[in-house]
Amino acid sequence: MDAQLKALAEPRRRKILELVRDQELPAGEIARRFAVTRPAISQHLTVLREAGLLIERREGTKRLYRADPAGLLGLKRFVDRFWMTGLERLKLEAETEAARGERKDQA
């Protein structure tokens, strides 16, 4: 999970993931969408791939990239624990408040 968090800390990498979330794109097409050098985008792609967030496929001389949802599972599970804990607390508060209201109604 640390590698994924480090990779996602860079805004361009998050944008790259958004670009390839629903479609496979060649490295050149990804690079054209940024105002940085092609080698810089190549480095970002490498970091994302090594973090398990991108899948690279070769087609002839092209390198095609798409997001790998499995690479985000560990991070999702981590965040979900906070979300579920918050929901559980909210549910407990609501149940406690409802019980107080019922006691007042019975009194």
From TrEMBL:
Tell me yes or no: is Transmembrane among this UniProt entry's keywords: no
HTH arsR-type domain mapped to chain residues: 1-94
Which InterPro entries has this protein been placed in?
Answer: ArsR-like_HTH, HTH_ArsR_DNA-bd_dom, HTH_MetalResp_TranReg, WH-like_DNA-bd_sf, WH_DNA-bd_sf
Q: Does the keyword Amino-acid biosynthesis apply?
A: no
Top-level taxonomic group: Bacteria
Q: Which UniProt keywords apply?
A: DNA-binding, Transcription, Transcription regulation
Cited Pfam families: HTH_5
What is this protein identified as?
A: Winged helix-turn-helix transcriptional regulator
